[in-house]
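Subject: two folds for Thursday's group meeting

Dear M.,

Sorry for the delay on this. The cluster queue was jammed most of the week, so I only got both jobs back this morning. I'm pasting them in the order they finished. Each block is the input sequence followed by the predicted C-alpha cells. Could you check whether the formatting survives your parser before we put anything on slides? The first protein is the one we discussed after the seminar.
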Amino acid sequence: MNEENITDVAVVKQVDGDKIVLEIEQTDSCNSCAMHGICQAGDKRIVYKIKTDLKLQTGDRVKIFLEPGLRVLSSFLIFIFPILIMVLFYLGSKLIFSASENIAILFSILSLLFSGFAIYKLDKKMANRLKFKIVEKL
C-alpha cells in the first residue's frame, strides 16, 4: 500500500511557535462510507495539536500521515470490541450465573454501556500518544 492511500488532508487552524493546531478535513471516502462520517460525528471536525519544524501559517493545507496499525486498532475498538464484549457478557451470564435467556440478553445489551465507557477511557488515555506526520504542504 502506498503512502497516498493512507494520508489525510488537514488545515492549520493555529500556529504557536513550533506547535500547530490541525483540523482534519472529511474526504470523499467519508461520503462513500456506509457509516457516513460517524467517526467524525457528522459535521464535527477532528482537531489535534502537534509539533512541527515546517513554517506553516493559519489556513495552510497539509497532507498528514497516520500509521495504518493505529487506523486498524481504532477500527477494531469502535466496531469489533463492543460486539466481542456483548458475546462475552452473554456467555458469561449464561455459563457462570446460569441466567435465563432474557437475563443473558439484558446483560449483553448492558455490556454496550461498559464497552462505550471503556472506549471513552482508552481514547482519553491514548489521545496524547496519537502521532501525525506531516507529509507535505499543499
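Second protein, same layout:
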Amino acid sequence: MNRLRIKSIFLFLLFSISYLDTAHGWHDETHLAIAKAAKYSKWYSAVGADMAKIKAGSTEPYNHYFDNTNNSEITPEMVSSQINRYNKPGDVEGHLYGAIIASLREYQKTVQAGKYPEYHIAFCAHYIGDLSQPFHNTPYDDFNKTHHTINDGEVENEVLKNIDRIEKHMYLIFLNPAHFEEDLSKEIARIANISRKLGLKLRTENRDMTKGEAYIQIGHSASLFKAVLKYLGKID
C-alpha cells in the first residue's frame, strides 16, 4: 500500500470520527418539541435515532446530515438519489434527505408484514427535525465545527414549554397521495435550501442563530412532519 493511499485512508477515518462525534442535530428536547408541535402521539420517541447511534456503529449517523461541500442547490432529484443510501455505512457525505423517504418506505413495508411499524415514524420524525438544522445542510468546515453544538442547543432549555411559539411558525403543507414521494422530495429540497441559505448567512456574518431564527427553522420541520402524519392517517 503506497504512502498516498495510507494518507487518504487516514484522512477519511479522521473526518468520519470527528463528524460522528458532533453530528447530533438539535438536542433532545428540541426534537421532542418538533414532534409534539406536529401532534405526533408518540412524540416522546423522536430522539430514538440519536440514541441508536450508540449501538448502531457506522450505520445510523450518516442518516442525519448532508455535507454539502459545494454549497449546491438541493433538488428533488438529489433527494431521490439518496434514498438507496439509507443506513449505508461509510457514506461520509451523508444522506439525510433520502433517509426521510426511506424511513417511510420501511414503515410501509413493516405495516405490510404485519409487524409493529411505529419506530420507523419516530426515525422519520428525527430526520425531518434535522432537516431544519442549518449545520446539517452545510459543509462540515471549521466554522461548522466551532458553532455546531451551541446552535444545536439554541432553544433547548425552553422549547418544550413553548410549543405555541413553534406553532406560530407552522404552515400547511399538502402531500398528494397520488404522488406522495414526488411531493415530499420537493418539500425536503425546499426546506433543505432554506436551512442551507441560513447556514451560509451565519457563516458570512460569523455568528450563531438567534432564538427567533431557531423557532422559524423548527417550524419548517414541524410543518412537514405534520403533513407526513396526515398522509399516514395518524392525525386528522
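Two things I noticed about the second structure. The chain has one domain: 23-232. The mean pLDDT is 92.

Cheers,
T.
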